[in-house]
Design goal:
The chain is mostly helical and 141 residues long. 84% of the residues lie in helices and 0% in strands. The chain starts with a helix and ends with a helix.
């Protein structure tokens, strides 16, 4: 895996670690929940604070989901570094493809357009660069 691909994989990992921090640890901070709740299509006549309180358990779960996804990508990079390229690249590809698909679901279910663009863009770029590197390795053989 080339340096550019590795950089974008790290960015995917960092994005998901930051999502974990925001969703699982800092969710009830108004700076976190207010923008997120405003992008939901809830139709509720409740305050942002009330909606955040209702959603807190779900966002804690989602935050840990993001953390575990990031750890999978990081494990893939460690495996690659240790010479287990097939297993490592499989984990990294899964992590990035998951990010792309989750970003698409985010777009389809909320108004979180920036989150969609960042999550999907990072994952798709990492996948494209990994594929480019794969093709270069193939042609060099």
């Amino acid at each position: 895996m080339g340096g550019a691909a590795r950089l974008f994989v790290y960015l995917v990992i960092v994005f998901h670690v930051l999502a974990f921090v925001a969703e699982a640890l800092l969710w009830m901070n108004p700076a976190i929940y207010a923008p997120a709740v405003s992008k939901l299509n809830s139709g509720l006549q409740a305050s942002a604070l009330d909606q955040a309180a209702i959603l807190q358990t779900l966002f804690i779960n989602q935050g840990f989901y993001n953390l575990f996804l990031a750890l999978g990508g990081l494990t893939g990079l460690v495996l690659i570094r240790r010479g287990s390229h097939t297993a490592g690249e499989a984990l990294v590809c899964y992590c990035c493809a998951f990010a792309v698909c989750a970003g698409i679901v985010l777009l389809l279910t909320t108004k979180a357009y920036a989150g969609f663009a960042l999550q999907t863009g990072l994952g798709a770029t990492a996948l494209a660069l990994m594929y480019r590197d794969h093709l270069r390795r193939q042609s060099a053989q």
